[in-house]
Specification:
mainly alpha, 73% helix, elongated, disordered N terminus
């Protein structure tokens, strides 16, 4: 592997390479060698920018969780427009895109990564599910404040049902993500007594 290849933004190129490996080979195939091979750089480049591979993975997960925050803002901005079920269907499809869904088992099966994420983020180590949960919960609260969700609705239970059910629908990426109608049916069923 060439060692003189200059990476303009090494951190971002390594993250992008890790995404491609994760989507192609899963959490088991995501190694430092696989990432640097995919990025077309020497293994030392990764270790020049990160203390070790778990430090790299921690930063990758935190970076991708931060990207979900922008998607969460879009969901909150939709409050009061369209239908609650339509907004949540679109949001779950976006929030459970292939990369966030692929990151969840990576975090689940790497104890060291989870421990570092707990240190970096108060409230737990499954950053991706935390972001999705926060987004859905905040949106439901906004819709309840507008009177589009029943005042007595249990937002915590609705949130857990939507996020848990959504994750289950999207977790099996083979042969691909669920149809929009499948997601819409889940959302409508969960919200049946609340809208």
């Amino acid at each position: 592997m060439p060692t003189g290849v200059h990476l303009r933004d090494a951190r971002q190129q390594l993250f992008d390479a890790a995404e491609r490996v994760l989507l192609r080979a899963g959490a088991d195939g995501l190694t430092s060698r696989a990432v640097t091979d995919e990025a077309g750089c020497a293994k030392g480049v990764l270790h020049r920018h990160f203390a070790d591979f778990d430090a790299f993975l921690t930063e990758l997960v935190l970076d991708r969780a931060a990207q979900l925050q922008a998607r969460a803002r879009t969901l909150r901005e939709a409050a009061g427009t369209g239908t609650v079920a339509g907004n949540l269907t679109e949001a779950l499809t976006t929030l459970f895109a292939p990369v966030p869904v692929a990151i969840i088992p990576l975090v689940t099966f790497r104890d060291g990564l989870r421990a570092r994420l707990r240190q970096a983020r108060p409230g737990g180590g499954i950053a991706i599910l935390g972001e999705v949960t926060a987004a859905v919960s905040a949106y439901l609260a906004d819709e309840r404040a507008r009177g589009r969700i029943a005042a007595g609705a249990d937002l915590d239970s609705l949130t857990l049902s939507l996020v848990g059910g959504g994750h289950l629908l999207f977790a099996d990426r083979d042969p691909g993500p669920p149809a929009e109608e499948t997601v819409r049916k889940l959302v409508a069923t969960v919200l049946a007594g609340a809208v």
